[in-house]
């Protein structure tokens, strides 16, 4: 029997080796072709650079465009990806014989006679799928771009709905070497032939292999194993808002990033306006940053944390939950409007304005000045932009008082006199100083600091915030460091104030640009096309498409901030209400609706948890039942047989216990271990792990959003639960970060039972 098994194994091995060799031959051919294309691109770049000496605008614009395109192309080709080519589908004959632009047949459905009555069939087409498309010299497809329509069956086809696909293969390679293949048969009942030989199937599950891999501190792309329900989201038309919900680990973040790459592929011109991905924390930005470059996309996508959306601000501090609740609430809008107007009065202007014009003293009294201010502020225009109008009304009032208007009947002479009067006054230092103090140019930071005075803030927040809220808010604004929630306030203030009215600084002009007059269209000479693209991206404040990750966490004020960045764009919004750390979902929903406007919405739900093994998902589901009764958890796709571990720590031995448990997990997994604690314990917990090396990290509960680790230690669920009104949902996030193992350490606060299970996790 054993000998027979061995024979079967060795046959399987030799079939596997043969199939690997087949794919290796194909990959070799692809690389040969890529090298040819790299040479072509280099030639293009050199050629274009030579033409850069010609001075006509048309030639220069053409040079710029060519160098830019060739540069992008070269950059992509030069990236030696771990798995440049990762997939293959073998298809039977389609209903019609039409080919698409990528050289593949377009038909999704098989021809009527593609499968013979004896369930045998011939493979009519074999397509290889990769990160970018490569055509052979004769325009036959060597590799189909994963985003092309012809690649869709690779992701969409299932045994229930196979279309033309008989076999779907995932190819694993490193650099130029094929390491392995994994097949799924979409029509297991069919015996298919390719070149007269029966089509073999190798391995058991590329998805499972991908999910079992050790995690590092950076997210990987999922391009070789996107699942059908995810593919529907990635390829959804971008005409409107795609709203995607799904539980922890269902691939929302991964799907959102792949969607960005897909949209760029579909309509690069349209998305040259940029795609913004809004992420909750800098940690998640760092974790996901590598995904798009691995998909061959860079430059046009900006991934920004909520605390870094406003230029010049880089906030990472968190407010205490009660303060966050005030700063995030839409009520702040009223307070800020009042603060902006109130701040105008802090300029220490004299009570009355006294100037000398045409040798006579002119004066405006306090009530006249306040009347003028009311008139100017009557509109909705940003306050800084109203300064010229305020200046004009002051001059009008002085002119009226001077009686100058009646001096001439001839309109031309009257106008001349008036302009001389204006000139006389506005060059006077007294007037300039008065205007600067009476209508000072305000900055968002300045107004925010003005709000740190409790009595003043009390005036501005009357009937909106209660005295306790006012005190908390004023106190938090006295801190030097900006918090994540302050950034949304700064952005709102920027809108209320408008840009300062000073003229723009002129860039140094390139003599060539002056000649052509194409200053705005052409890059400056010393700036390469790449640098220019980067500069434009950095200066951008509105985007063609906005992707919001972890959307459930945006406060109303943050929705307003993000909304301003996509006023004319399309949107993809992904989130999970069960993971929301915002206590007032209704208020946030209204702000979200306002940001998304009346654009039509398409809703998608992701249902499978690819991250957590069933054992961990089951424990987390207990918290979900409490946090959101009636809400279905996603179903876990795999199981490890390892149940979560519970450990009770003596209150004076918490550090040692957590350290020991972390060390234990580090020995058991190859990748990372995350230790999740209540926000207050962040710094302390980092100290606990100081000697354990880079694979172990400590994070506060709110920082754990979106991240994942091979194993996690969740410290004191009760502390996490009690730290905010949304604590149960935050705990749900903490418990769903591990791909393999979870240890829960409880303290006295958790009231652990005999098996060290904390009260909140018992049935
Ligand atoms: N089709 C897939 N193939 C391979 N891995 C996948 C697939 N879909 C998701 N994953 C993996 O599952 C994990 C969870 O994905 P992701 O972080 O995108 O989920 P999420 O829905 O955003 O989770 P959360 O809401 O908890 O932040 C990641 O490691 C991701 O790579």
From TrEMBL:
Ligand binding (ATP): 246-253
Family matches, as Gene3D superfamilies: P-loop containing nucleotide triphosphate hydrolases
Signal peptide: none
Domain UvrD-like helicase ATP-binding as annotated: residue spans: 225-613
PROSITE patterns linked to this entry: UVRD_HELICASE_ATP_BIND
An MF annotation (GO) of this entry: helicase activity
InterPro entries assigned to the protein according to its UniProt record, in alphabetical order: (+)RNA_virus_helicase_core_dom (IPR027351), DNA_helicase_UvrD/REP (IPR000212), P-loop_NTPase (IPR027417), UvrD-like_ATP-bd (IPR014016)
Record keywords: ATP-binding, Helicase, Hydrolase, Nucleotide-binding
Protein name: Helicase
Originating organism: Streptomyces bambusae
């Amino acid at each position: 029997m054993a000998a027979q098994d061995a024979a079967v194994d060795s046959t399987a091995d030799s079939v596997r080796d043969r199939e690997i060799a087949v794919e290796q031959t194909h990959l070799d051919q692809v690389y040969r072709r890529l090298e040819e294309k790299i040479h072509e691109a280099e030639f293009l770049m050199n050629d274009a650079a030579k033409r850069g000496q010609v001075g006509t605008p048309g030639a220069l614009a053409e040079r710029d465009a060519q160098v830019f395109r060739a540069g992008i192309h070269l950059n992509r080709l030069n990236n030696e990806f771990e798995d440049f080519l990762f997939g293959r589908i073998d298809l039977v004959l389609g209903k019609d014989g039409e080919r698409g632009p990528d050289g593949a047949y377009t038909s999704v459905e098989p021809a009527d006679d593609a499968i013979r009555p004896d369930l045998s069939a011939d493979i009519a087409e074999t397509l290889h799928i990769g990160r970018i498309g490569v055509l052979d010299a004769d325009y036959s497809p060597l590799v189909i771009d994963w985003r092309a329509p012809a690649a869709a069956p690779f992701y969409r086809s299932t045994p229930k709905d196979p279309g033309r696909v008989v076999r779907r293969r995932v190819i694993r390679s490193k650099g130029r070497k094929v390491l392995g293949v994994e097949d799924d048969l979409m029509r297991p009942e069919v015996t298919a032939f390719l070149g007269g030989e029966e089509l073999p199937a190798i391995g058991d599950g590329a998805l499972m292999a991908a999910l079992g891999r050790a995690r590092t501190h950076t997210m990987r792309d999922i391009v070789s194993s996107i699942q059908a329900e995810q593919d529907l989201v990635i390829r959804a038309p971008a005409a409107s808002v795609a709203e995607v919900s799904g539980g922890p680990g269902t691939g929302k973040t991964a799907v959102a990033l792949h969607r960005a790459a897909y949209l760029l592929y579909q309509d690069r011109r349209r998305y040259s306006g940029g795609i913004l991905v809004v992420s909750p924390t800098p940690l998640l930005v760092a974790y996901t940053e590598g995904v798009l470059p691995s998909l061959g996309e860079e430059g046009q996508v900006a991934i920004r944390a909520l605390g870094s959306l406003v230029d010049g601000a880089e906030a990472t501090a968190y407010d205490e939950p009660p303060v966050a609740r005030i700063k995030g609430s839409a009520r702040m809008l009223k307070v800020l409007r009042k603060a902006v107007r109130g701040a105008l009065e802090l300029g220490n202007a004299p009570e009355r304005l006294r100037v000398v014009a045409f040798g006579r003293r002119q004066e405006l009294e306090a009530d006249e000045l306040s009347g003028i201010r009311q008139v100017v502020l009557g509109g909705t225009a940003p306050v800084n932009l109203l300064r010229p109008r305020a200046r004009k009304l002051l001059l009008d009032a002085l002119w009226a008082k001077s009686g100058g208007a009646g001096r001439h009947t001839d309109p031309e002479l009257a106008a001349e006199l008036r302009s001389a009067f204006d000139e006389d006054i506005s060059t006077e230092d007294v007037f300039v100083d008065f205007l600067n103090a009476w209508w000072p140019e305000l900055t968002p930071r300045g107004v925010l600091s003005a709000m740190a005075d409790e009595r003043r803030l009390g005036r501005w927040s009357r009937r909106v915030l209660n005295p306790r809220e006012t005190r908390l808010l004023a106190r938090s604004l006295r801190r030097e460091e900006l918090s994540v929630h302050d950034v949304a306030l700064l952005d709102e203030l920027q809108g209320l104030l408008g840009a300062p009215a000073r003229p723009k600084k002129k860039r140094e002009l390139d003599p060539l640009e002056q000649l052509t007059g194409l200053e705005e269209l052409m890059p400056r000479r010393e700036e390469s096309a790449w640098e220019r693209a980067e500069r434009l991206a950095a200066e951008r404040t509105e985007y063609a498409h906005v992707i919001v990750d972890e959307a459930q966490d945006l406060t109303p004020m943050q929705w307003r901030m993000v909304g301003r960045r996509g006023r004319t764009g399309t949107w993809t919004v992904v989130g999970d209400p069960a993971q929301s750390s915002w206590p007032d979902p209704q208020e946030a929903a209204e702000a979200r609706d306002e940001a998304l406007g009346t654009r039509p919405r398409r809703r998608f739900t992701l249902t499978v948890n690819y991250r957590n093994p069933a054992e961990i998902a089951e424990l987390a589901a207990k918290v979900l039942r409490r946090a959101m009764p009636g809400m279905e958890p996603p179903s876990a796709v795999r199981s490890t047989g390892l149940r979560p571990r519970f450990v009770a720590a003596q209150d004076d031995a918490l550090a040692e216990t957590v350290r020991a448990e972390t060390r234990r997990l580090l020995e058991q997994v190859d990748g990372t271990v995350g230790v999740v604690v209540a926000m207050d314990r962040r710094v302390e917990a980092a100290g606990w792990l100081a000697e354990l090396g880079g694979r172990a990290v400590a994070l506060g509960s709110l920082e754990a959003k979106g991240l994942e680790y091979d194993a996690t230690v969740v410290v004191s669920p009760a502390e996490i639960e009690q730290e905010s009104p949304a604590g149960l949902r935050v705990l749900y996030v903490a418990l769903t970060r591990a791909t393999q193992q979870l240890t829960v350490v409880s303290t006295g606060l958790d009231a652990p039972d005999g098996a060290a299970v904390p009260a909140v996790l018992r049935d």
